[in-house]
Amino acid sequence: MSVASRPNGPSPDFHPDLNLLLQCPECKISPPDLVERFSEGDVVCGNCGLVLGDRVVDTRSEWRTFSNDDQGNDDPSRVGDAGNPLLDDNQLDTLIASGAPGSTLGRDLSRTQNRSAHDRKDTALQDAFSRISQMCEAYSLPKMVQDAAKQAFKLSYEDKKLKGKSTESLMAAAIFLACRHSGVARTFREMCALTSVPKKEIGRTFKIMEKLLLELGIKPSHMSSEEYQPLQTTAEDLMRRFCSHLGLSSQITRAAEHIARRTKEEGTLAGRSPTSIAAAAIYFASGLFGNPQTASKIADRAGVSEGTIKTSYKLLWEARDKLVDPEWIKSGKAKMEDAPKV
């Protein structure tokens, strides 16, 4: 008996055939004529109509449509909008359509649902959030501030302590509070110009809102509850922005910050607002370093009066020996005789 010899070369690797072939058991056509009907989730034979599979997952691409693209009211998107954590619940409500043309029942049901109190509250919040975003973008505030302002507004919106306050004052106070918590200082005067809400009204609403959020445990993320104290805007917080608006160099900006810091340590302008201190320090530093700015120009950028700047500057000039770094004069970068005259 002869034995078949093995072919030359390595033996082929054997593995199971994982290719599954779905074929109609009735027609047994090869290749099979199968139709995927995603609307019903079935796989059917295109020849005899026999259902060969059900609950088929639609693997086609998900599409987004816009109002001007949706020509036949045929929205291919199978999901709703992304959930908004700032709104109540999970926004998984049932939508009642108006029904076929001429259907009064469907139209009445849809209208009744749209009048629900829950929908009205969410609509009001969404409108307020949209306005907060617009105002923050007008002042180039980062998204971190926008989100914090929206959270503060929502928590304060229906609180009894703020009942009677206008929506505009709540939004202004929420943005101001978010700026402080995020380390992006803004003045009450700037909030007043942004929102058209009186300065005193913003201040009153802000104090109530800050106390309310502290009771709820809302505070800057880097502070514990024991460490947290109501935040105060300092002259140094405002300095870089004011100097940037005036087109001043980093050297003058650092000098103005130094003068403001020394002013606080010495108590030279104790009791004056951070805005007034920052404006006077810029007026002093810009003259020292040979790029003098007029009091009127600084007043326009800082939002204080020209007289306030000059009055504060007189006090700085009297304490100049304690405020000016001697190294500035020794290096020749600054000259005391170039400082504004009192």
Automatic annotation (TrEMBL):
Oligomeric and partner information: Associates with TFIID-IIA (DA complex) to form TFIID-IIA-IIB (DAB-complex) which is then recognized by polymerase II.
Function comment: General factor that plays a major role in the activation of eukaryotic genes transcribed by RNA polymerase II.
Organism of origin: Magnusiomyces paraingens
Domain of life: Eukaryota
Pfam family of the protein (one): TFIIB
Similarity-based family: Belongs to the TFIIB family.
Chain intervals for the UniProt region annotation (Disordered): 65-121
Primary localization class, coarse: nucleus
Protein name: Transcription initiation factor IIB
CDD domains: CYCLIN_TFIIB_rpt1, CYCLIN_TFIIB_rpt2
A single MF term (Gene Ontology): RNA polymerase II general transcription initiation factor activity
Keyword presence, rRNA processing: no
Annotated Gene Ontology cellular component terms: nucleus; transcription preinitiation complex
Ranges where the TFIIB-type domain occurs: 20-53
Example GO BP: RNA polymerase II preinitiation complex assembly
Keywords, ordered alphabetically: Metal-binding, Nucleus, Repeat, Transcription, Transcription regulation, Zinc, Zinc-finger
Subcellular location: Nucleus
UniProt entry tagged with the keyword Nucleus: yes
